[in-house]
């Protein structure tokens, strides 16, 4: 995937982003293996701008997902995964712009399309501003929510179709860490509709209390 080969995120040029990035990385280091810690790690730091925090976490989550995909890319081929699905629980169609008719594509094509699209979102300075003087667009949180929604689908497919291979490669702990960051983040900021989470609900309940998951079902999400 092009996303995995790129050198830097455009958004990383922001000095404020680097400071927040260091804050998040420090929090994440302290939380390894600690599910409650993940919940704390994604909380908006006191006095920080919400959109800056959302942008930085989104970039980190996308980067982590690209590394997960790099582990799967060789084994997730059209002959094995002809459609983008999460077992029998969900199947996903691809639409380039959200307006054209969605179509069936292989899992690898879907996921590579997602990363190309995520890259174009991150590179668009009208959505993810580089300078601290530039403002985020009014609908910025919807852009973030759509990115997170599509990346969640990647994890849904990976856990259902490639988990055993990744476990055999010794990648299970890293996979779980990346997924926890995404899940606690999306739930903290009410980004994605609870229906999207259904394929991985049993896994999510392992990482947090059942009541936390059940409460989220009543949340009014962004997408």
UniProtKB/TrEMBL annotation:
Transmembrane segments: none annotated. It comes from the Eukaryota. Keywords: Metal-binding, Zinc. Pfam families: Mob1_phocein. InterPro entries: MOB_kinase_act_fam, MOB_kinase_act_sf. The keyword Phosphoprotein does not apply. The keyword Metal-binding applies. Zn(2+) binds at residues 76, 81, 157, 162. This is Mps1 binder-like protein. It comes from Hirondellea gigas.
